[in-house]
Amino acid sequence: MTMLVSNVARTAKRETARTLSALPRRLSSTTAPVVSADASAKLARDGFVAVGKVLSDDEVQRARGRFEDLFKGNFDTGIYPDEWHWREGISKPDAFREIVNGWKADSQIAGVVRSPTLGKLATELMGWPHGARLAQDDVLWKPPLAGGVAFHQDSAYISAQFKPYENNSVTIWIALDDADQDTGVVEYCVGSHLWPNNKAKETTASGSAFHGQAHHLGPLAQAARSAGVSDADIEIQRITVRTGEAIVHHQDVWHGSAASVSSTRHRRALGVHLVRSDVTWRDTRRPDYIYGRYYLPQEASPRDEFFPQTYTP
Ligand SMILES: O=C(O)CCC(=O)C(=O)O
User: What ligand 1 atom has the least distance to the C-alpha of 140?
Assistant: First the structure.
C-alpha cells in the first residue's frame, strides 16, 4: 500500500514537472529594452533603475485579464501557486492581494515571467556570465484604498537560498496599471543595498516582513539603526511607473509600498524575481519556505522544471 502511494505521488510529481516545462515563454520582441552602461551603473549605485516599457499593451491586457480568475482559484494549468494571499468572500475587499508563482497556475502569467527578454535584461544589467533563471514570481494587486507592503529585502526570500549570495538576484517590477504616489507605487531607500551589516544571508524567509505591518516603513527604520545610518541619510524615492513599464531592483535594496489613497484606482503589477542561472543550493542549512519544497538533497543545482532558465547568453 505504502509503495503504491509513493509510486502515485512520484507519477503526479513527474506530471506536474512536465506541465510546468511545457508552459509558454513568450514576449513581443518589440518591447525589449536596451541596457545601457548608465542603467547598470545606476542599479549598482542606487539599488534600482527604471527601464521603460517591457510589455506591449496587448500583453498587459492579457496578463491583467487573468487576475480576477487567479484570485478566485481558477487555475488554467490545474496546478496551485506556491502562495495565495486573499480569498473572495473571506478576505477584506481592500486587503493587499498576492499570489506567488502564479506562473505555475496560469499560462498567461507564465508567458510573461518566463520570457527570455526579461532574462536577458537582468543578465545584461548584472553582467551574469551564464544567464538567468526564474526564482519566483509575484502577482501583486493593490485595490483602491488597500494597505501597503512593509519594507523588506528580496534577498531574505530569494538570494539567501543559494550560493554564491552576492549579487545573485534582481527583481523586475512591472506595472500593469499606472502606478504613482496615489496608488502606492513601489518605493526604494536609495543606496540601502550598500549599507553595512545589511545582508539577509542569515534571515529566514518567514522572519522577513511583507504583509501585515501597521506602518510600512517600520522595518526600514530598524535596518537603518543596525547599519548605523542616521535619519538624515535615509532617502526614499517613489517613481511613477506607467502601464507596461518596469523598474529593476537589487536583491539587497530596502523597498516596500505605501497604502493606496485612491478610492477608484487599482494598482496591479507583476514581480519577476530572477537569479543568476549558475547558482547552487546553499550548503549552510536546508533552503527554507517555498524553495525547500523543491530542494533535492542529492542535487546541487535548482531544477529547471521549477526554476526555469529563461536566458542563456
Ligand atoms: O508591489 C509592491 O508594493 C511591493 C513589491 C515587492 O516588494 C517586490 O516586487 O519585491
Answer: 1
Query: Residue 282 contacts by C-beta under 8 Å, 6 or more apart in sequence?
Result: 160, 161, 162, 163, 165
Q: Is the CB of 255 under 6 A from ligand 1?
A: yes
Closest ligand 1 atom to Cα of 257: 3
pLDDT (tens digit per residue) in 158-186: 999 999 999 999 999 999 999 999 999 99
Name the grid cell of 63: 496578463
Which CATH number fits the domain 43-303, given the four candidates 3.40.50.720, 3.30.1340.30, 3.40.50.1260, 2.60.120.620? 2.60.120.620
For 114-146, b where at least 16 C-beta lie within 10 A, e where not — what string?
A: bbbbbbbbbbbbbebeebbbbbbbbbbbbbbbb
Terminal CA-CA length for the chain: 48
Tell how far the Cα of 139 is from the centroid of ligand 1, in angstroms: 9
- 83-112 pLDDT per residue, tens: 999 998 899 999 999 999 999 999 999 999
Omega into 164 within 30° of 0, i.e. cis? yes
**Sequence spans of domains, the chain:** 43-303
What span, in angstroms and rounded, lies between the C-alpha atoms of 287 and 281?
7
Residue the block writes with cell 506541465: 19
